[in-house]
Structure formats: structure tokens, C-alpha cells
Write the C-alpha cells for this entry.
Amino acid sequence: MDLLRRSARRSRTSSRSWPKAAQGRIIWVRLTWYVVDMDEYVSNLKALGKAYREVIGTHSPSMALVQVVRLVEPSARVEIEATAVVPR
């Protein structure tokens, strides 16, 4: 469940980092998830999906999942790289 808690926290932080004018108009176009334990990710899919919908909604951008040996922050379990656009 640590993976779920960290994923949701990081996703909320990313979505709040946009300027106020862009809030609500952001279109996520790509997500790359880097995880240190694929089994942990797979065993938490249902809960991760719920947290994902709370933060991103029902939109499903192109996504990739990559297992890595470790992340820069030694205690990190997941890192999410996101690309988004704000329409004019």
C-alpha cells in the first residue's frame, strides 16, 4: 500500500503545480510510471486505479510502466513522469 500512497501524493502534487489559470483545463497526454517492484504494483492495481481516477479522472492518456532497479530518492517506490498540454 506504500506504493499507492506515494503514487496518489505525487500525482496530486503534479496536478497542483500548474498555474491557477490552467487548473481544470490540463489534458494529460502521456504518463510513464517507474516502479521498483512490479509485483507490488500489480497486487495494488484496483486501489491504484481508484486513486488514479480521483486525481486524473477517467481520461486515459498513453501510459508506460517500467520496472527499475532503484529511483534517485532511495526510499521512493514509484516515480511518475507526466506530459500535459493546456489548450488555448
